[in-house]
Amino acid sequence: MEPSAGSVGGPGPLLERVFERIHRESMQGLPLVNPALRVRAVGFRRLADAGRWVGVLVTPWFMNLMVLSDGTRPLPEAATGERVTLRFPSGAYRFTAGEVEEVGRYLFCSLASPVHCFPDAETAERTAAEVMELLLRAPEGAQEAPAPDPGRRGLLGLGRCARRAEAGA
């Protein structure tokens, strides 16, 4: 899957507006919120051959890999909360269907929740950018045989953060 050349922007600004509103209206003061983080859409790219936008949404309460339709093809059929598997150059990952009125249907793969392991917004956003690079990179020597799925958090470099977050839960 190759990102298209015109992949700047996409759903990022809309996701930021919607999730900033959710943060203001529903998340203030909750213990799972990391006040050092902000809502940012990171690294969104249009995968023209798949008809999808893919990127990472960082919020003060989660970091999710997000997939939205680019309007040329619908997302796989799945009711909200149902899971589907999507394949990327780095492997296959399980996504959950979600929907927010202003955004519409989307698929998400949780990378970290809660996100207390990130000391500041810059670290979280840098990690999100690294996730996007790893997601779209095929493993060395994987041209002939599909690589085994090492798990989304292990492959995407969030194993330490995820283990720390899960241990605290």
General description of the model:
This protein is α+β, with helices and mostly antiparallel strands and 169 residues long. It contains four helices and six strands; from the N terminus they run H-E-E-E-E-E-E-H-H-H. It has helices spanning 12-27, 121-135, 152-155, 159-168; strands at 40-47, 52-58, 63-69, 83-88, 91-100, 104-112. A six-stranded antiparallel beta sheet has the order 1-2-3-6-5-4, with helices on both faces. Residues 1-8, 144-150 and 158-169 have low confidence and may be disordered. Belongs to the HupJ family.
How many domains? The number is 1
Strand order in the sheet with the most strands: 1-2-3-6-5-4
State the low-pLDDT regions, or none: 1-8, 144-150, 158-169
Kindly report the average pLDDT value: 85
**Top-tier CATH class:** Alpha Beta
CATH architecture classification name: 2-Layer Sandwich
What's the β-strand tally? Answer: 6
Number of helices: 4
CATH fold-type name = Yope Regulator, Chain: A
Q: What is the succession of H and E elements? A: HEEEEEEHHH
N-to-C CA distance: 36 Å
**Which bin fits the share of residues in helices?**
25-40%
Structural class: alpha+beta
Report the CATH superfamily: [NiFe]-hydrogenase assembly chaperone, HybE
Shape: globular
Approximately what portion of the residues adopt beta-strand conformation? 25-35%
Rounded to an integer, what's the Rg over CA atoms? 16 Å
Largest sheet: 6 strands, antiparallel
Protein name: [NiFe] hydrogenase assembly HybE family chaperone
Family: Belongs to the HupJ family.
